[in-house]
């Protein structure tokens, strides 16, 4: 603690300071597939954790609390480590350099991917060591990345959100390439091959219990500030393929009107049960989800947004709006990875839609921002303007449901190709602040 540029961490600490995640794969056509009901109850805990109020200032005023997050993707070494096989000292140095960059940019939260492909960045009794560390899944890297990340983040006044991908097993389709003792090899009936990748089957109750157990091990053992899920539930659609869960549907789908309703219930159960189990283990640990930015289009459902893109509810069987309305989650970070004025999915249309969804729920809304698109030659013209992202934050500031932003991803925060991140910091982050509720 005590380095320049920090803010307030939790417990009163005062410091000086998506294959790829689907966000990376979201294409300009707003499909997101370019590569990539029971009672609620979250409000009872949220009243304690956020008892100071809802964190919402009068419209247009600067916030004393603001979520400023940075995703650090480890799958395929997207953000960190820069390549597999670095020494423990080299990996640690790269990690702490990223944390220092977060402080420099006056961010206050790092969202670290700790379970990228059904493997772990900590010594897990459930799953092998992550391949991204050594290049060999199951090989001990010689240090504890998650434990170090938590300690070093907190020392800098940063929160550390542990990011888990629940169902992805591998970015390839060959089980023989997995570690010899990998649970997917020991339980081949748990696994479905789809789109050249391996996934755990969300329709099997034993799978749902196992992935929860594997993730909650980290919550029990480390002082993480939140559990964070990305946008992968059922996999993104692949042309000409269907997800082969016939046997699971036959065994467990009775009583549902169709397979889609059964699949949505499977994901609802994952979310609701995970939330309940987190609170049972550590009530002060938050639970957040970062879904694809479109729940449903208004042309499909009058409750949907004025968009014309892939629908999470239908394509991934993730009823993200319901999770907010039932307050099963503490925060939501929709990936609004499109520019202002984009016809199929206008940022300016989606921000007010999501702000309305969270109204009255107690669920915090943070907006996922596509920093990785700024200056990308393949991105639309709007993304060649260094001011595009700054305009996003200015627009969002007019909607009192928005309590902050998260930027994808860490390597783009560092590289900042055209200065878009620097512009955000100059325009909107003049001083460090603490995140809402901490």
From TrEMBL:
It comes from the Bacteria. Residues 67-378 form the Glycosyl hydrolase-like domain. Keywords: Signal. The keyword Signal applies. Residues 32-62 are annotated as: Disordered. This is Glycosyl hydrolase-like 10 domain-containing protein. InterPro entries: Divisome_Glycosyl_Hydrolase, GH, GHL10, TAT_signal. Residues 41-62 have a biased composition (Basic and acidic residues).
């Amino acid at each position: 603690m005590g380095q320049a540029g920090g803010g307030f961490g939790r417990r009163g600490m005062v410091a000086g300071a998506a294959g790829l995640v689907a966000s990376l794969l979201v294409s300009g056509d707003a499909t997101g597939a370019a590569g990539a009901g029971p009672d609620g109850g979250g409000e009872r805990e949220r009243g304690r954790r956020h008892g100071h109020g809802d964190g919402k200032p009068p419209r247009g005023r600067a916030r004393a609390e603001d979520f400023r997050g940075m995703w650090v993707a480890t799958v395929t070494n997207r953000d960190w480590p820069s390549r597999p096989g670095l020494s423990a000292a080299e990996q640690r140095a790269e990690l702490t350099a990223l944390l220092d960059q977060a402080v420099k940019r006056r961010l206050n939260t790092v969202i670290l991917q700790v379970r990228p492909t059904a493997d772990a960045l900590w010594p897990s009794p459930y799953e092998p060591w992550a391949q991204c560390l050594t290049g060999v899944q199951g090989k001990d890297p010689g240090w504890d990345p998650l434990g170090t990340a938590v300690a070093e983040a907190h020392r800098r006044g940063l929160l550390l959100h542990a990011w888990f991908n629940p169902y992805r097993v591998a970015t390839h389709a060959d089980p023989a390439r997995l570690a010899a003792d990998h649970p997917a090899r020991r339980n081949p009936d748990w696994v479905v091959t789809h789109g050249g990748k391996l996934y755990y089957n969300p329709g099997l109750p034993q799978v749902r219990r196992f992935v929860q157990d594997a993730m909650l091990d980290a919550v029990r053992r480390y002082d993480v500030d939140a559990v964070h899920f990305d946008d992968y539930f059922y996999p993104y659609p692949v042309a000409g393929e269907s997800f082969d869960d016939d046997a699971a549907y036959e065994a467990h789908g009775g009583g549902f009107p169709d397979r889609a309703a059964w699949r949505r219930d499977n994901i609802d159960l994952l979310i609701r049960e995970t939330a309940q189990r987190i609170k049972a283990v550590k009530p002060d640990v938050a639970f957040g989800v970062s879904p694809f930015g479109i729940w449903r289009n208004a042309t499909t459902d009058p409750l949907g947004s004025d968009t014309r893109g892939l629908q999470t509810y239908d394509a991934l069987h993730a009823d993200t709006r319901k999770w907010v309305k039932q307050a099963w989650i503490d925060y939501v970070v929709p990936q609004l990875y499109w520019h202002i004025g984009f016809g199929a999915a206008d940022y300016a249309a989606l921000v007010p839609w999501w702000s309305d969804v969270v109204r009255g729920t107690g669920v915090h809304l943070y907006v996922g921002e596509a920093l990785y698109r700024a200056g990308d030659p393949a991105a639309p013209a709007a993304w060649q303007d260094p001011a595009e992202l700054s305009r996003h934050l200015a627009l969002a500031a007019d909607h009192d449901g928005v309590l902050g932003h998260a930027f994808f991803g860490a390597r783009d925060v560092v590289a900042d190709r055209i200065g878009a991140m620097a512009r955000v910091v100059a325009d909107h982050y003049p001083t460090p602040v603490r995140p809402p509720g901490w």
